[in-house]
Amino acid sequence: MSLFEELKRRNVFRVGIAYAVTAWLILQVADIVLDNTPAPDWVMHVIMLLLAIGLPVAVLFAWAFEMTPEGIKKEKDVDRSKSITGETRRKLDVAIIGVLTVALAWFAWDKFGGTHAPEAAVDPATRQAGSAQPAEGDPAADPAMDELPEKSIAVLPFVNMSNDPEQEFFSDGISEELLNVLAKFPGVRVAARTSSFQFKGRNQDIGEIARLLKVRHVLEGSVRKAGTQLRITAQLIRADTGYHLWSETYDRELDDVFAIQDEISAAIGEALRVELALGTDHEADLPRVAESANTAAYEAFLRGRHLVNQRGRSNIAQAVEDLKRAVRLDPEFAPAHAWMAIAWTMMLDSPGTYGDLSLAEVTERATPHIEKALELNPNLAEAHGAKALLAMNSNGFQQAMDATARALELNPVYIDAMNWRQIAASNFGDYETALAIMARMVEADPLSVIGRLNYSPALATRDLEAGREMARGLIEQHAWAGYTALGITEFQTGEDLSGSLGWFMRAYGEDPHDELSNRYLIRILSLVEEFDEARRISDGNLHIVDINEGRLESALHSLQRAHNADPENYAPMTELADALHLAGQFEQSQRYYDQLRDFSPQRLVFDALDASTRSTIRMAYNELQLGHPAAAEEAIAGHRKDLAKREELQQVYFTDHLAEAMARAIEGDDEGAFESIRTAIDLGARELAFFREPSVASLAGHPQFAALRAEVQSLVDAEHAEVLRLICSENPIPDIWQPLRATCAGASAGP
Q1: Segment Disordered: which positions (predicted)?
Q2: Count of CB atoms within 10 A of residue 492's CB?
Q3: Hey, which of 85, 146, 487, 638 would disulfide with 503, CB 3.0 to 4.6 Å?
Q4: Dist. CA 541–CA 551, nearest whole Å
Q5: Which of 682, 683, 662 is nearest to 673 (CA)?
Q6: Residue 568 burial by CB count (10 A; 0-12/13-18/19+): exposed, middle or buried?
């Protein structure tokens, strides 16, 4: 008898087939069980290894042993005439058919059953938010969904199923790449990253998430990464019914991550095309992941991008290191260069950024990466975004407008690019466009932190309660941003100075190193003449305290030092020019104003603290003192043109009326100046330092001037009493900050 015939007689082939099919079923069951338990990744590896080892053992056992009525015997000890291998063969055939039937049923359910199955059929391990559970046959269980755009989708952050929490950046990165690809589908509204990622780790109803994000469809999933093995599970859900339009699981090598992303986006595109009648007719026309990189570089890139999106000084500093590694490992990976440039630019030492580098240092480090990213991929949105960010910080506002336009053409939900564009538009004096962009940011990204932080104070000038409500909505999501937005809103509207201080104190409690909220905190404490307390907030802003206290020599010393360290940075240059003007050094002040005016598209200079045109009026006074009346008139005319545009949009604050009072005093219109001061006080002006402005010195002999100053002093005293009550008796951050003992000793004695 041949070997093949003997193998058949001893049922070796049947045992092997039965074992393989049974092992496959065991692996499927184990996969679901382990995905729904906190078992470490190695458990699955052990099961796979044991089953693999068991196959040759089972085959060897079938060859060497035989089942007999008396039990298992060695094959050589069995009388061939009494062998029951035929009966065993029939039993194995029945077993194989049974197991194959179960396996085929499982395969059919896994591949096709989930396409239109209710949410209950979904692997719950991938569910980071509970999906809607509509009644059977009720496709319109949620009437509120009818108002949402049909062609819309949100990509929720995929759940990290790996045992290592450090792999969060990887699962987030996969989600973000898919979001960017889907954003390229024409006519589809894709919820922006910052809004979608607010639901990370939250067990929230899918329908509720869809309503908040204003979308009809939600993509969710999970990522399990173990060494070079990768499993990605994704499912596309129609939010109003909770039914699946598509679902799939991918088991691949990590090297295939870009191909997987393309496969997922193509599959989703097909599902959306059928569901939403999209215009893309061929797979070749589907948007794809634009870049690929080696595995190590890609992981470093994802980690760096994740940290940049988190913001904060320490995060940006670490992001620089991760992105350096990504660029070093794969110099041809364009996204790593683009994000490297963004990270370097965010290391600038100025309000709103997170580092201590000069503009020259930032430009030197970021520019080569911008150029390389654009060389490698001219159609990479983030490369144009990086170009815009650097240009904006270098006063290249037209370049920033052009670059953000291209970035948003490539990625319509690129929220950072929207934000940089509205800032550039404001510097052109195009406030209408800036406001429209801010409104668009909130529409495209309803839970955007930066969008609502910027828009809520602007909205409050037209609708105070709406602005406050938007700011309050930020607190639960991002406490620092919510407190800061409320603080700015209250300060600008002049409703409650001590209330504004309370919000900024809470912001300080969340982030004691943030430049923006700290400057407001210092400013308010200085306005109520708590100079010692103000000096304790931040060493980098002592000049604000010195100017309010009238210590101009000290302010000039620190500002000159800051300017010398970063001579191209317009923020310290503006503050130095203002301080020199206040000190009566008009010629030296004007040298800096001339440079700043050349930077500005409107040939205006904006106050570094409140963005009003007070610095422009100081420049006008300088010009008049230096014998240039025409230049002074030009500056005042520019101020009034800017003021008129903002008045039309209801974006005028008390600081703007103080600037107008200074302009009228320069023109000799004393009554007009007093009228503007009166308006500013009514809107919340509490600045005693204003009465020391050189441009209003001509008003000093008027009784009305003295009366207005006395009124402001009285208001400051009243605000001071409220501030003392707040910081001494109702301190909202007692574990973070305590006032000086002397401060509260004064409070107990009464104001």
Answers
A1: 124-144
A2: 22
A3: 487
A4: 14
A5: 662
A6: middle
- Position 696 scores a pLDDT of 98
Q: From 517, 515, 497, select the one nearest 506 (Cα to Cα).
A: 517
Q: What's the Cα-to-Cα distance from 283 to each of 267, 280, 289, rounded to whole Å?
A: 9, 8, 14
What span, in angstroms and rounded, lies between the C-alpha atoms of 419 and 403?
13
> What's the rounded Cα separation, in Å, for the pair 150 and 536?
54
- Residue 282, both tokens: 């061929």
Q: Residue 568 has which token pair?
A: 């191209």
Could you report the per-residue pLDDT of 469-494, keeping only the tens digit for each? 999 999 988 899 999 999 999 998 88
Query: Please, what sign has the CA dihedral across residues 419, 425, 429, 434?
Result: negative
Gap between the Cα atoms of 640 and 645, Å rounded: 9
pLDDT tens-digit map of 257-285: 667 767 776 776 676 667 666 554 444 44
Backbone angles phi, psi at 234, to 5 degrees: -140, 150
Six token digits for residue 494? 């002049």
Residue-by-residue DSSP string for 324-370: HHHHHH-TT-HHHHHHHHHHHHTTBSSTTS---B-HHHHHHHHHHHH
d(CA 63, CA 612): 91
Q: At how many degrees (to 10) do helices 334-345 and 381-393 cross? A: 20
Q: Confirm if 227 and 164 have CB atoms less than 8 A apart.
A: no
How much is the pTM? Answer: 0.73
Which sign does the torsion angle of CA 731, 734, 737, 738 carry?
positive
| Helix (H), strand (E) at residue 73 | strand 71-74
- Say if CB 271 and CB 185 are below 8 A apart: no
No. of H helices and E strands in the chain? 32, 8
CB 322 within 8 A of CB 286: no
Q: What distances in angstroms separate CA 487 from CA 176, 481, 501, 548, 645, one per listed residue?
A: 32, 10, 7, 20, 25
| Residue 474 to residue 454: CA distance in whole angstroms | 12
Gap between the Cα atoms of 460 and 470, Å rounded: 9
Residues 6+ apart with CB under 8 A from 525: 501, 531, 533, 534, 537, 545, 723
Compute the distance between CA of residue 41 and CA of residue 164 in angstroms, rounded to an integer: 9
Q: Which residue type does 471 have?
A: A
Q: Which CATH number fits domain 119-289: 3.40.50.300, 3.20.20.70, 3.50.80.10, 3.40.50.10070?
A: 3.40.50.10070
Domain ranges for the chain: 3-113, 119-289
Nearest to 491 by CA among 653, 661, 649: 653
Which residues have C-beta within 8 Å of that of residue 335, sequence separation ≥ 6? 290, 291, 301, 305, 373, 380, 382
Neighbours of 282 (CB within 10 A): 6
Residue 707 has pLDDT above 50, yes or no: yes
What is the token pair recorded at 642?
């800017």
**Lookup: tokens for 136:** 């059977």
3-state DSSP call for residue 226? strand
- How many other C-beta atoms can be found within 10 angstroms of the C-beta atom of residue 24? 14
CA 368 – CA 374 distance, rounded (Å): 10
Q: What is the pLDDT of residues 351-381, one digit of tens each?
A: 778 888 999 999 999 999 999 999 999 999 9
* CA 312/CA 335 separation, integer angstroms: 21
In contact, 276 and 192? CB cutoff 8 Å = no
Rg of the chain taking only CA atoms, in angstroms: 34
